[in-house]
Amino acid sequence: MSEKTYDPQEIESRWQARWAGEALYQAEQSTEKPKFYVLEMLPYPSGTLHMGHVRNYSIGDALARYKWMRGFNVLHPMGWDAFGLPAENAAIKNNRHPNEWTRANIAHMKKQHQRFNFSYDWSREVATCDPEYYRWNQWFFLRMFERGLAYRKKALLNWCPRCNTTLANEQVIGGNCWRHEDQPVEQRELDQWFLRITDYADDLLNDIAHLEGGWPERVLTMQRNWIGRSEGTEVDFALAAHDGAAGGGKIRVFTTRVDTIYGATCVILSPGHALVNELASPEQQAIARRMNEDAKRKDPGDLEKEGFFTGHYAINPYSGERTPIWVGNFVLMGYGTGAIMAVPAHDQRDFEFCRKYGIPVKPVVRPADGELAVEATMKDAFEDYGVAAVAGEFSGLPTEEAKRQMNAKAEREGFGKAAITFRIKDWGISRQRYWGTPIPMIHCAGCGVVPVPEAELPVVLPHDINLADVKGSSPLSHVPEFVNAACPKCGGPARRETDTMDTFIDSSWYFYRYCDAHNPNEPFSGDIVRYWFPIDQYIGGIEHAILHLIYSRFWTKMMRSLGLIDWDEPVTNLFTQGMVIKDGAKMSKSKGNVVDPDEIVGRYGADTCRMFSLFAAPPERELDWQESGVEGQYRFLGRVYRFVTRNLEKARSVPNIRVPEVAALGEADRQVLRKLHLTIRKVTDDFETRWHFNTSIAAIMELMNEAQGREAELTEASLPDLCGAVAMMLAPFAPYLSQELWTELGRDGLVFKQTWPVFDEALAREDDVEIPVQVNGKLRSRVTVPLGTSKEALENAAMEDAKVREWVGGKTVVKVVVVPDKLVNIVIKG
RNA sequence: GCCGGGAUGGCGGAACUGGCAGACGCACCAGACUCAAAAUCUGGCGAAGUUCACUCUUCGUGCGGGUUCGACCCCCGCUCCCGGCACCA
Questions:
Q1: Contact assessment for residue A642 and residue A711, using Cβ atoms and an 8 Å cutoff
Q2: How many CB atoms lie within 10 A of CB A438?
Q3: Residues 468-487 of chain A: which lie with beta carbon within 7 Å of strand B?
Q4: Which of A775, A778, A788 lies closest to A822 in space, CA to CA?
Q5: Pick the CATH number of A768-829 from 1.10.10.10, 3.30.565.10, 3.10.20.590, 3.30.450.20
Q6: For residue A301, what pLDDT is reported?
Q7: Helix (H) or strand (E) holding A553
């Protein structure tokens, strides 16, 4: 039979047409099989897939197909993170409605997905901009509101005076507006909705322990840092009497080192602290305002410490000392209480500040095995723990013990308490934007803030809107039909909430909806998600290590509080793939180094594109895109295709794989089958452990090299097994070609639903092994012996080897290291 | 500054548990096929030295030490690159 030319466009379009409309990848609802939920992060429908997507999905798809072949009931869904600002920008720029723009993008990207033949169960597709989806965002919001988990408060927002709108934190670059790079962002105080993620701060931190091993360590570290739990003490410094502050005014500070409080030589307020306006002169208040703005604009590393003395004093409740009150630009308003006690002798930042302004430095803690430092000679703060040397009644205690006793005293006497502070803040979810989930609340002059009754959900986003003319407030506030509503309580005229929700809400629970995507009565059925959860494998980019992945964990814990589910964590295993780079830089439009997947597919086919993205580097590392490497993959697939098609007659002759008698095989068949089973072991092992598909593909290449080298002597004894197994091993990586080969071989059905080939020890075993022989650790010769040769026999064989004799002859053999089937090392002297 | 990750041929990378460094691919060189080219196939390909030649020797995994019969791998001390966090009291 003559070989055929590999024509990926013909093969791929033929199978695509044949599979169109067929539900090949549907998960089963009831089955005896074990379940496997593999998930890739849903994309924002920007318009086209980029190589980062292709890489992400190629990894997930390989795993999904492999799991099918290992007999799992696989859930592998896909959807669209369809709300967000780019749709609004595009709407203004192109005079196109965000919905229309988004839907067109989804349609195009879905076509691209299907061209790649990623194995998604499209019957579960979710677009977060569908009212059927976002109504459940609203439903969750109401549940949280009922429990006080959603609340409203005033908060500072970033405001660009030229855009005349608020900006998200990520849209503030170096203190300036992302659209107007020379325009500093202002702060405005507005009412905002918040979710009480801090209620779960301890759970989010503690449950990280359950994720160890399944999640990359660095993601867990980043989350721990983000949550930023620290144990310490809150202490009140009373304002000194002559300040005239009526009613016993006080300054509450947070410290992790209350044991050093006898060394506090001043109290420092953040420039944003409420007391600044009471204690500072008008001139000083102006300085404080300038400091606030500097802090917003500048990189904290470039900001020099500065401050001023307010002229007022506070009383240290432990020592009774009068302590000057300063304002300092390095004290953060957003952390702790916005005020600190400065202990320059034991905190480097305080040390730098106090030395600059001539504030005394007072050492109070000495090293466990040393002397108390002397102020005049101190070059740096002593930050270690030790013994409280100057601490009134606590003097002489180890610092840890001093802390405990001093906490107890604060509590006893009512001027403070042990306290835990978190870096993580409640999640501000209000966005003054159009293209998002409407917050289901109504503002009534008489009744206040009233939730929309559940029966009226969803609160649908109005279609008619003029985004271009909207200035300075939420677009929805300009739509009277939307805004004007009857108060659900009193029936009087009222206004709807016009802010929409942060889109991170959409992506915090979408993977639950996949399980029961069309449920009209509830976000999902508890029974169905109990079957599929937790997610066995989540795959995505490292850039979501904090935001999305913390919000998702929070949402799961929140749903547990609501009684919807009964587990703590949504994702058992997380895999973060590396970036795709080209010419040493991340692909980006501004760098002009973007490779368009469509173009690669058009030139080489989807299989080649997928193969290369898996072959060029291990998945967790950066991938360097090289066009010539893509061609190499294309050549390899062509080589496989031609090999199989020109050997079809023999390869087809046996309908199913069976194990031939080893002894009866010819040398070529024997060696190729041996290599085949080594390859099966290798590829299987890669799937089961570390997903280094680059080495899996390399192993299959080696196998094909071996087969092609012995092609003339191969017979029906090996070719059916070889070709069938190669088709199956390629199935996770190159779905079109593998199916084509499978069908050409005369086998029935879908290749990725076959049983994964099984490693056969007997066929893989080698009769003889070549053993390297070293002399003093250097390779000097090799001897060939039967596998399993004993230590003694192996040593004898090595010593008899002619080359070894040359090296060893006349010298004293000190020692011989023999590792059977591996190596011999002869240690000589003289 | 703190916390991760990394450094191996001209390039991407392999060596999984301390046991033949450079698998596999790319690029390059040579040959076969061809009028020619493309495609395909075959061979070579870390560096230096040596041999007519098969070959052989020495060096070689960022740098300096150490452990070991044996180190890309383990330990100690550095350098550089990438990423994250960064006045969090």
A1: no
A2: 26
A3: none
A4: A788
A5: 3.10.20.590
A6: 60
A7: helix A547-561
Residue A767 CA distance to nucleotide B29 C1' (Å): 38
By the 8 A CB rule, do A477 and A443 touch? no
How would DSSP label each residue in A331-366?
S-TTSTTSEEEE-TTT-HHHHHHHHHHT------EE
Cβ(A797)–Cβ(A718) under 8 Å?
no
Hunting for tokens 């009565």 — which residue is that? Answer: A521
Distance A104 CA to B34 C1' (A): 51
Strand B contacted by A698 CB (< 7 A): yes
pLDDT in the model for residue A623: 87
Q: How many residues does chain A have?
A: 830
What tens digit of pLDDT does each residue of A491-502 get? 999 999 999 999
Preceding peptide of A597 cis, ω within 30° = no
In angstroms, rounded to a whole number, what is the distance separating the alpha carbons of residues A96 and A89? 10
User: Of A136, A124, A98, which is closest to residue A37 (Cα–Cα)?
Assistant: A124
**Phi then psi dihedrals of residue A234, to 5 deg:** -100, 130
A796 CA to B56 C1' in angstroms comes to: 25
pLDDT of A298 > 70? The answer is no
Instruction: Give the contacts of A407 (CB within 8 A, at least 6 positions apart).
Output: A233, A258, A416, A417, A418
For A385-414, what is the mean pLDDT? 93
User: pLDDT tens across A251-264, in order?
Assistant: 999 999 999 999 99
What is the three-state SS of A73-89? Answer: EEECCCEECCCCHHHHH
For domain A139-196+427-501, give the CATH number.
2.170.220
Number of Cβ atoms within 10 Å of the Cβ of A516: 17
The domain locations on chain A are 34-128+200-227+507-577, 139-196+427-501, 230-421, 624-764, 768-829
Distance A579 CA to B76 C1' (A): 34
- DSSP-derived secondary structure for A172-227: EETTEESSSTT-BPEEEEEEEEEE-GGGGHHHHHHTHHHHBTTB-HHHHHHHHHHH
What is the C-alpha to C-alpha distance for residues A730 and A704, in angstroms, rounded to an integer? Answer: 12
Phi, psi values for residue A611, rounded to 5°? -60, -45
Q: How confident is the model at residue A1 (pLDDT cuts 50, 70, 90)?
A: low
What is the predicted pLDDT for the residue at A243? Answer: 56
Determine the average pLDDT of the residues in A575-581: 88
Model confidence pLDDT, tens digit, residues A177-188: 656 666 666 777
Helix residue spans in A710-760 (DSSP H): 719-730, 735-744
User: Which CATH code is given to the segment(s) A230-421?
Assistant: 3.90.740.10
Is the Cβ atom of A819 within 7 Å of strand B at any atom? yes
pLDDT tens across A458-502, in order? 999 999 888 877 666 789 999 999 999 999 999 999 999 999 999
Pairing of strands A387-388, A484-486: unpaired
In this structure, is the CB of residue A217 within 7 Å of any atom belonging to strand B? yes
In one letter, which amino acid is A549? L
* Chain B bases having any atom below 7 Å from a protein CB: 3-5, 11-16, 19-21, 23-27, 39-43, 57-58, 69-71, 83-89
Please provide the average confidence, as pLDDT, over all residues in chain A. Answer: 89
In this structure, the strands spanning A823-829 and A768-775 are parallel
Strand ranges, E, within A583-651: 585-586, 623-624
Classified as helix, coil or strand, A604 is helix
User: What is the 8-class DSSP label of residue A571?
Assistant: B
Considering the segment(s) A34-128+200-227+507-577 as one domain, its CATH architecture is 3-Layer(aba) Sandwich (3.40)
Which amino acid, one-letter code, is at A133?
Answer: Y
3-state secondary structure of A431: strand
Catalogue the E-assigned strands of A565-683: 574-577, 580-582, 585-586, 623-624
